[in-house]
Amino acid sequence: MSIKIPKISDYSSSKKIIDFGNVQAKILELNYRTITNTLGQVSLVIEGKADKDFVGITTKKGVTYKGPVGFIELSKFLINKTKETSITAAVRKLGYIAEAVGVSDEFMALDGKCETIEQFVSEFKKLDIYNKYVYWCIGAKEKGKNNNGFMNYTSYIVDSDLRSSKYPVANDDNKVILFDRDKHIERMQLADNNINDFMPKSNNDLPDFLTKRNINDLPSAPNDDLPSNTPNNIEDKNINDIINDDTNDSLPF
């Protein structure tokens, strides 16, 4: 008997929530989400393939999914509308999606037609990007365990690697970035020491930027974006808040 290596499309999973990994899935929804006057994010709902006997989650709003579903962010960083490099990074990521689903020409036709990232996303979501199964590499950041001991995640499309010819999203499983657990999952930092040992005695001991009230005064991340887990907790509601209470599909790490 010859041993064959399965392709991504051959992988099967009984998980109902797409937390991370390589997955073949289609876009159901794509929206721009305003966080503050200068910060935003693009959020997607994707749905993977499943056997006919698969039973998906039903949200509290009554939406039932036919396959495993992922509530993912375009990037692990927020879009900073005051930073051209941040907007460019978001548009580039949308370009990968456009190429994967076969609307590159329509995507390029948007060049120079929009004044803001909100307008660009509004036009982008009008393109024929939905219900086409493509291949994704999804990364995740640990948010902490829920009451049942399961880890919750913020999931996002991984960034491209300039040293690789692979893409975060592709129409061929040979072209998509291979998921690497060590690289693409950000673990929560746990300290053995007493947290009180590290707390400043007064605001005078804090760095200047930590005493500012306006989130727009906070320093940007290395690529000019702010991480999604900013001090204002500007993430979507926990997935467990929108799915049925008896549904718990995260991995028990």
What do these coordinates show?
The chain has 5 helices and 8 strands. It is an alpha+beta fold and 253 residues long. It has one domain. Strands 1-2-3-6-5 form a 5-stranded mixed β-barrel. The protein starts with 20 loop residues before the first strand and ends in an 11-residue tail after the last helix.
Mean pLDDT: 78
Number of domains: 1
Low-confidence stretches: 8-12, 195-225, 229-253
Strand order of the largest sheet: 1-2-3-6-5
Radius of gyration: 20 Å
Form type: globular
What helical percentage do the residues reach?
10-25%
Structure class? alpha+beta
**Count of distinct strands:** 8
Q: Report the span from N to C terminus.
A: 36 Å
Task: Describe the main β-sheet briefly.
Answer: 5 strands, mixed, barrel
How many DSSP helices?
5
Topology as a string of helices (H) and strands (E):
EEEEHHHEEEHEH
Strand content: 15-25%
